[in-house]
Amino acid sequence: SRSQRTRHKVVRRKPKAMAMAQRIARGATKIARAVVDEVEGSQGTRAFLTGILKRGLAAEAGDLKKTVLHDFHVENGAKMVPFAGWSMPIQYKDSIMESTQWCRSNASLFDVAHMCGLSLKGKDAIAFLEKLVVGDVKSLKPGTGTLSVFTNENGGIIDDSVITKVNDDHIYLVVNAGCRDKDLAHIEKHLKAFQGQGGDVNMHVHDERSLLALQGPEAANILQTYVKEDLGSMYFSDFKMIDVDGAPCWVTRTGYTGEDGFELSIPDENTLQIAKAFLSSDKVRLTGLGARDSLRLEAGLCLYGNDLEEHISPVEAGLTWTIGKSRREKCDFLGGEIIKKHLTDGVPQRRVGLVSEKGAPPRSHAQIALEDGTVVGEVTSGAFSPNLKKNVAMGYVEKAHAKAGTKLSVLVRGKQNDAVVTKMPFVPAKYYKP
After folding, report:
1. Alpha-carbon distances, residue 385 vs 91, 355, 388, 397, 430 (angstroms)
2. Contacts by 407-410, CB closer than 8 A, 24 or more apart
């Protein structure tokens, strides 16, 4: 029946993705067990640690890349784990619960230098990029940015990216660490063809720079101490090239926590200096990937590889707002014909938020069902919320069951736990806007 076909589509995982997940899991299992044994024993923490390491594209320890702050992390008691081919801190001396709560009331400093920053320059940079992403980059004011997604020929999401229009001839963007190789290959493939037709655009990958994120209600006060510019006139998604503690930085008012905050692209040689400057305040703590994941989940933000994949369109993912309104008629980007059909005809599944009050937190791939046990979807991310003190998750369900307030259940360890479809973010966003 049509219902059965729809249901099958919702819970299906592509064989390629499943094979990759299995390879990742085998490589990360030993480290996951070791870390889980050392941190707090709550079910939510265990579920999170196992999940984040499984999707971390683990490599042998000797093959891992290191950020310029690697030794600094170790000196400060960080537990280092493989993530997307890098050795990254998952937590420090405080627990993931404590770190998550700290960021919501003070300020947290994250080393996110594993992510890939790159620039497109030339008079045709915008025209080129708009062939690959769904956003209206052309209409952005200089010094502002937006979230967008790269799409494939089938309308699926290759990656999500924060895209900044520095000026009409310079676009700066940051892509996910785990997608770096495929993203760069994808961009370079289309770049060569575009240049072959006379297009004026070149790409530079900023491997000479690091990336730090300063997040939380105290972030602006801390950063203001080290810059001359008035941050009060710099709003969410604004970008400035300014000196921070005397070092030339690219500062964007953005983040991955739902809090006010900044991401700073910093020359490698100045990164430790700036990190130490921020941490001289008792309002700032080093924070690892563990808290970063629980913060972004509380904020209802997607994680590529879990909540976004190449067979999911931006419409299904609840990211229709990333598709520029001026571009929805032509949809002149990769997969545009399919995405336009999704916009006009609708989609069979939608990403939703879920809250469950009792039982263990739902994990990725847990089945979502009706009260009678009929499976209607699948969890993509789930954990115990340190700030809400309840289980939160997101996943994909059949469109008929995606309305807020719908009562469902999630299958966790053989038990059906009650869950309610809930609007996201779970924790109110605190972005600094005019």
Report:
1. 16, 10, 5, 21, 17
2. 407/371, 408/354, 408/368, 408/369, 408/370, 408/371, 408/376, 408/377, 409/368, 409/369, 409/370, 409/371, 409/373, 410/354, 410/356, 410/362, 410/366, 410/367, 410/368, 410/369, 410/379, 410/382
Strands 375-385, 390-398: pairing is antiparallel
- On whether the CB atoms of residues 190 and 78 are closer than 8 A, the answer is no
| Alpha carbon distance 195, 177 (integer Å) | 26
Residue 5: left if φ>0, alpha if ψ -120 to 50, beta else—which one? alpha
CB 311 within 8 A of CB 154: yes
Q: How confident is the model at residue 52 (pLDDT cuts 50, 70, 90)?
A: low
Measured between alpha carbons, how far is 318 from 353 in angstroms, rounded to an integer? Answer: 11
Range of lowest pLDDT (218-222, 371-375, 378-382): 371-375
**Cα 268 to Cα 285: distance, rounded to the nearest angstrom:** 21
Q: Where in 306-434 does DSSP place strands (E)?
A: 349-356, 367-369, 375-385, 390-398, 407-412, 415-422
Nearest to 164 by CA among 192, 125, 201: 125
C-alpha torsion angle, residues 229, 230, 235, 237 (rounded to 10):
10
Supply the pTM of this predicted model.
0.89
pLDDT of residue 34: 34
Tokens of 427: 């924790």
Alpha-helical regions (H) of 63-165: 70-75, 96-105, 125-129
